[in-house]
Amino acid sequence: MKKIYLLFFLFTGVFWQDLNIIHSAETQTNVSGSNTSIEGGYTGGATTYQSGSSSATTTNSTSNSNIRSAPPTASAPSYNSMTQDVCSTGASAGLQTFGLGITGGKHFIDKNCERLKLSRILNDFGMKVAAVAILCQDERVFESMIQAGTPCPIDGKIGKDALALWNKYDHERPDYKTYVKRMKKREKVEAELEKIKIEKLEPINNEDLR
Hints:
This protein is mainly alpha-helical. Strands 1-2 form a two-stranded antiparallel ribbon. The chain is elongated and about 125 Å long. The chain is 48% helix and 9% strand.
C-alpha cells in the first residue's frame, strides 16, 4: 500500500510540474506603448543574406517651388438698362494675365430704334408729315419713297415740289453717296446707248447723202 501511495505522489508531482512548464511557455505578456512586446515561447525570425549581398533602400523626393498659379478671372462690367424702353445696347470685355487685368464696357445707341420711337410719338400727336420726315432720315426709307413717287418732305414741300428741291440740293439727300454712284452709272449707260444709236444712224445718213 505504501508503494501505491508513493507512486501516486510521484506521478502527481511530475504532472503538475509539466503543467507549470507548459503554462509558462504559453504565457504572453503585452506591454502598452508605442510598440507591443510579446514574451514567452516566441522566437523572432531573422533575415539572412548570402555572402557578398547587401540590402539598401533609397527614397528620392523632388519638390518644385517654381509653380505659377492660374490668374484670377477678369470680370467685365455688366450693362443695366434700368428699363426695357431704351434704344441702347451694352458691350463689355475683360482680359486677365498673371500681372495685369483690364476690363471695359461701353453703351451703343441704336439710331434706327430712336427714329422709330420718335416717328411713332409724332404720329400719335397727329403730325403725320413730321413722322414721315423723321423716317426719311434713313436712306432706305428715302430711296423707297422716291421709287414710290412720293418723295420725302423738304422745307415744307411735298410731292413734285419736294422732288424738285431734292434734285436741286441733292447733296442733302441721306443717300447722297449711293445716289452719286447710281447717277454716274446711268450717265455711262446713257453714253453707250447714245453711241450705239449714232452707229445705227450713220448708214442711213450715208444712203441719204448718195
